[in-house]
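Z., the sequence and structure:
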Amino acid sequence: YGALFHAVTAPTTSKVDLIGGLLICMWNYMGWDNASTIATEVERPQRTYPRAMLVAVCIVALTYILPVAAVWMTRLPAGAWETGSWADIAGLLGGPLLRIALVVGGMFSAFGMFNALVMSYSRLPLAMAQDGMLPSFFGKMNRRRAPWVAIVALAIGWACCLGLGFERLVTIDILIYGLSLALEFLALIVLRVREPNLARPFRVPGGMVGAVALGIAPVALLGFDLVRSESEHVWGMSSFAFGALVIGAGVLAYVIKQALKPAGWAQPEPSLRTP
């Protein structure tokens, strides 16, 4: 372990502070509600989703605990770890084969996460097209019933964000996603008031108090993102202003759509609609 210890003791070049670390943790753990967008394509979602989420939580916990335990066994100082250290340590411990295996495993992990996000996010433009909120061509699907137009549109948008950098993307993502999540919590409360007897496959216990309490902590965590968004800058403006601009553009697009197409866009043909 002597060579291993001295090989990676260079000071870390990371500039992420405490708030930045908290934002990255939030970013790592968010997105559980994305699975709901493909519920119509899942067999018995009321039974499948709780089981899948419990299994996923266990797997996620292991993916954090096992690597951290391995780090602890090396007795390396925390300041020695930086971007690329996992591959370096793997190479020192197990040689080039272990290093390559770790890198390939990381690539598969990133691809799997990206594939899952594409599957969930592409259903949003598809559903909006089916409801007449977007032009009908967003609802087009190929022979495998994948919404290819929505996927291409999302890919173009994602490609435009590649130059922003990881930390800026995390800040903007949490800001926009957090606000949409806050709307979901608000919708939960509104439905409890307006539709108290509505049939629900899942129901948050505790009545109105439980519905309100469920959203307090997640919404409070958005304060960390608001603090950081003022110091991060995108195209000459703060990340908060940039996120607000993106959100405002969405609201403006909706207003324009209502003015031009009050009855909604033409819906896709029945053969192109999701089952």
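The longest strand covers residues 233-234. The first helix runs from residue 2 to 7.

Let me know what you think.
H.
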